[in-house]
Amino acid sequence: MYEHVSRDRIQVDNTLTDDEIGELTQDPELVYLQFSEPFEGSRLDALNDRFFAVRPDVWLRVFGHYGAAPDMSFLDRMTHVTKLSLDCLTEAANLDAIARLSKLRALKLDIYSLPNLEALYAIPDSLEYLHVGKTKSKKPDLYAIQRFSQLKTLELFGQNKNIDAMRYLSRLETVALGSTTLEDANALAQLPRLRSLELSNLGLRDMSGLAELKGLRRLKLWNVKLPGELAFISGLRDLQELTLDAMSAIEELPPLSSLHALRSVRLENLKNLKGLDELEGAPALEAFAHYHVGKMNPEDYLSVLRNPNVRRVNIGFPSGKKYEAFEQLALAHGKIPRSWYD
């Protein structure tokens, strides 16, 4: 049998029939096929031959409850799987079985007690997506990631040993780094195709390399401790989306008048922010959102409302009275106001 966990996620168990597998192949919204209990060999073969051979776009997700240590040797039989997620796991036995997935293109490893990343030396070097979650040990070494010359997306959380190896991945377009400390951003500056960068819960001792990301289109900074101001953002000429969240040191936004591609700005929980004057001169800004606004008042957003290109404004005032006052201001300036819940 199978169960819809969400619109794009289905959980299966050992009773799954061939007819049900056929039904699943026809589900256009299916993204993840998942299970947490062991499967019999015949059912694994059926999943491989009847489902994953037909739907290589779907992730196989094997998850646990941070207590069990599932045996991954079954992966020997899953020869048609191209996307594999092993997550919510404390341990995993026989992880080297990943090497038998010759068609693997995307891999998520979120195994808390993972002792090393030796498995990365054995999997196909044609990998295009890699996610490695936070581990108990700081020993896992990222040196092996430089094998993946086709990698387009890299997500690393709590990992920084030999993180500079990413500089050799010239096809990277999307990078997300979190829960770590970086000496500098020089490795990021070596990525000519980088278009999207997310940094979260991260310390950066030397931020000069960020100014070299001239082709960046999307930047999200969440609880990032930077050694200076955000002036580097003013030089990101291709930037289209900017998100700043939980950045307590920010008092003012950097100049945005030179960013002719910037369409969207989202701010959240910037408790020391004193003003939004720079938004008035953002030449292409269309959408602005600000949540957890602190002590900001409706009139503090006049600079945004005066920008002739801005069409949509979402403000998360904690007070209904303040929001009503802002709504009147927005409408008076020809803007479309949105509440916290829209």
Automatic annotation (TrEMBL):
Cross-referenced InterPro entries: LRR_dom_sf
Protein name in UniProt: Leucine rich repeat (LRR) protein
Organism listed in the record: Paenibacillus methanolicus
